[in-house]
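ingest -> validate -> predict -> emit
validate: passed (alphabet ok, no gaps, 340 aa)
predict: started
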Amino acid sequence: MDPTVRLVTSRDVAAAAGVSRSTVSRVLSGVAADRISAETQARVLRLATEMGYTPHAAARQLRLRRANTLGLILPPMSQRFPGTHAFAQFLNSITEVSDKAGYSLLVSPASSPERTVQMFRNRQIDGVLITHPRELDACLDELLRNGAPVVLMNQPMNGREVNWVDFDNVGATRAAVQHLIERDHRRIGCITSEPGFMVAALRLRGYREALERNGLQVRSEFVVSARGPLLASQGAEAMKQLLAFPEPPTAVMCYRDQLAFGALRAIEEAGLRVPGDIAVVGFDDDPASAYQHPPLTTVRADFRATGRAAASMLIDLIEGRGSRGSNVLLPTELIVRQSS
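emit:
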């Protein structure tokens, strides 16, 4: 840029429009513009465009005491969303909402939550989104003590008053198990995540509620926790444990589609048929679910809706429109295919 060219300021636009600088600021920011006549708004907008006026971002951030940046803490790789497609949907939706509202997105790993706290203290970020908040309680408490706007992408483990967005994990799993019961299954197993994750606890609760409401026994030996990254190999190992019983389950509810893929493989290798001998249901509606052998019945969860709702809630908190402790519970849909 030519250093001899003077940038157009809001004072220049105000002088040309015959209004005050505060009026120019209100019109261009959209704040209290309803108190300014349509004619004046049109004149200010036209002159700002013609004169090539661009608001100074740094000055605006200093005035509003904002960095116009959202922090996003991602879980460890082993606990990320079940497949790159779902994760991409989630991340893209957050980016779309933040871009539209004029915010950047800064991604941090769960392995360095202290860095996120420090960045908020230094006013480098305005608020924080946290996915899979297990093992981040200390970070969360510190952020809340510092007055940081925070939104969780899962229900909190300890019931603390914090904003969150999540799927109806209890209702979704209950409906999936009810679907199996209505197909005359009475011995229903569950391949779940390792203990300690709120999502796993909620889905296990839905599984148990469905059995109890139908007068069926909840057999602890039929609940197997997969370890590690929760991929197909862990699902296969868990399914082999269930198949080792003298009377194995005739149906199994899986915490993730990836685990269900492994369960399908283990059943096939055991010389059994799906759903003739054992029915299988997953959760997430991974794009590969429809192409399994047989196609997998699963719970469809809208990860784009989660990202949009969480990012919008956080921006509302930052800009003073939201309330602390609010939450959003998103619906799910059971997609019935040939595996059940």
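The longest strand covers residues 69-74.
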